LALA0S05e09736g1_1 (Lachancea lanzarotensis), 510 residues
Amino acid sequence: MGILQLLFKADEDVQGSRFRAIAIGLFVAFGGVLFGYDTGTISGVLAMKFVKENFTDRGYFTAGETSLITSILSAGTFCGAVFAPLISDTLGRRLGLIASTIIFTVGVILQAAASEKNLLIVGRVIAGLGVGVLSAIVPLYQSEAAPKWIRGAVVSCYQWAITIGLLLASCVNQGTHARNDSGSYRIPISIQFLWAIIMFCGMLVLPESPRFFVKKGKLPEALKSLSTLRGLPADDKTVEAELEEIVANYEYERSFGSTTVVDCFRPANHQLKRILTGIAIQALQQLTGINFIFYYGTQFFQNSGIKNPFITQLIMNVVNVVMTVPGIALIEIAGRRNLLLWGAVGMCVSEFIVAAVGTALPHSNAANKTLIAFSCTFIASFAATWGPLAWVVVGEIFPLRVRGKSVAFCAASNWLFNFAIAYATPYLVDHDRANLQAKVFFIWGGCTFLCFLFVYLFVYETKGLTLEQVDELYDTCPSARQSKHFVPSQGFAHDSPDAEKAVVEAVEKI
């Protein structure tokens, strides 16, 4: 945590506890471990000898069974993400995360109890609902709670936690896959209880988002929450000034009228541009093909003739975790746009090399070494850029009045494409179907080229801006390419004496 503070040298006039700002954001990011671990477990489980012999009557899973068992989690997460605003916009961000861990736990119980594929499928659907709610609320809470100087890095840690979850799943699968009993799959599945308990207990003590309280008109509660998050007294001028800006900006947003789901797609306040940007960046994150490696990597490496596919998959996960760190370190230095652009280039080149060599020299020793090496460079490029930054962009670009719903729609887009890719991929690579094998990377490489074009044309640079200043950015800057030159004004609070009066009254009520 001290490293983070050195990397992101906040302005000297930043007041309050920097440690607290980082610690709270990092803990909430722990929700990514639930997400990543659950995602990573299934790849190894479906490749386990005991599971194949006892969950099927033929000793192997067909492409259809593999497709259904793997992708059904994403179907649940899509539904969970879509309905997340019902919780986050009514009960709050904090209670929404608590509810997600409870739903997730029910799904884990069913998966651990399963001795045949039908109950396993039901458990994955329910666990997926919990993960979907969590995936929509974690970046939302982080963005609303973190100060601007560290916000991007804090939200990036959500993706880092996802990669850690994937790595932990790979390690546990490696340790249990050779067992010839139900412990081979029940142990890795049951470990998820621990992650859920940690998340549940932590959210019992963390504060609610101050912006949620502002949205509900509870200014004294918002002031207390902001005071806790910043580690300053409620009557501190810095806390009062930040709350004034939040209140003034929200009052400006309310001038556009009431908020419904339809408002997420209206042109007013450039919301249509923002929602299309958020949905597209989440969809493109999946279309990079990253989850092909983590859902089907073990089986793909096995089919490619690579010895020790479990070890190879473990290496991929280690690269994913390690290379997320440079992205966290650089996000507030290089900015969102630069990292996304360079990440797209690195992924595109790596995937085309894998596809070309794998097609020209199938099952050769040279091809296998190339496949492993450039799969690692692909994952490294993704982990340092598109992995964390897609969530950062989505958490930052929406106005408060529709932020909860908009982030949920974007997360749902991620899961919809996740489901489509998870469902279709077995048919694309299966020997009895399309049998593309390494040629599937031509598809992913083409999509990463689209990633580059999309960022260049549509993604705004939001480095160093408060969430309220991001609203001003969209109001005043017509082009994403010009956004890096944007200089914020004095803010909404400067022209809103009503906001100052409301905050003063809130201080008096405490």
